[in-house]
TrEMBL record:
Designated name of the protein: Cell filamentation protein Fic
InterPro entries: Fido (IPR003812), Fido-like_dom_sf (IPR036597), Fido_containing (IPR040198), Mobile_mystery_prot_B (IPR013436)
Coiled-coil ranges per UniProt: none
Organism encoding this protein: Rhizobium loti (Mesorhizobium loti)
Membrane spanning residue stretches: none
């Protein structure tokens, strides 16, 4: 069984979740990262081709996770059932997810925030809830970008700025720090991370 090498801020998998790996030949973190990236590429292709506009629904969020990670993990697209170092209690995931997506839909309908700020706020809520055993950051970034494209008709956030957010580096450190500030109700650093200016 693979022994993952988690960067700071990553969500460790328990033994049952690790057992959900569909490819037994994978033994290193590098191999797992490569396999997941191939699956994400396939999921992004699906996302680019879909004409669905219901991106702010629990059903879409679950399907997106399944499309991004379902070739790698048996539990992709299902809510986690274990507590983690981050995230709401597992029994609250369904309620919290629906509330976050309903809020985001309200922001779109009422022009509450500029599009990029709305996407950043949705991203933070998704990471805070942490619906799935793993892949939550990547899923949240892609869902936020889907919101921008499908509902606002604008381009995606430059999350990485050329860095690899799966590895510890200056960009990931800034990202994790900004998420923690948002957890304390200070969205400013996360907006700055995405090169945005908050509304006055």
């Amino acid at each position: 069984m693979i022994a993952p090498d988690y960067p700071d801020g990553a969500t460790p998998l328990d033994l049952n979740e690790l057992a959900g790996l569909k490819h037994r030949h994978i033994t290193t973190q590098a191999e797992l990262d490569e396999l997941e990236q191939a699956n994400i590429t396939s999921g992004l292709l699906w996302l680019s081709r879909t004409r669905r506009k219901d991106v702010l629904t629990p059903g879409f969020a679950v399907e997106l996770h399944r499309r991004l990670f379902g070739d790698v993990w048996t539990w992709a697209g299902t809510f986690r059932t274990t507590g983690k170092n981050i995230g709401v209690d597992p029994v609250q995931i369904g309620v919290q997810l629906r509330a976050a997506l309903d809020d985001a839909l309200y922001w779109v309908d009422r022009d509450t925030y500029a599009p990029l700020e709305a996407a950043i706020r949705l991203h933070h809520r998704m990471v805070f809830i942490h619906p799935f055993a793993n892949g939550n950051g990547r899923h949240a970034r892609i869902l936020a970008d889907a919101m921008l494209e499908k509902l606002y008709g604008v381009g995606p956030v430059d999350w990485t700025a050329g860095a690899d957010l799966l590895k510890m580096n200056e960009r990931r450190a800034a990202y994790i720090s900004a998420l923690k500030a948002a957890d304390r109700h200070d969205i400013g650093p996360l907006l700055a991370f995405a090169r945005l200016t908050g509304k006055p």
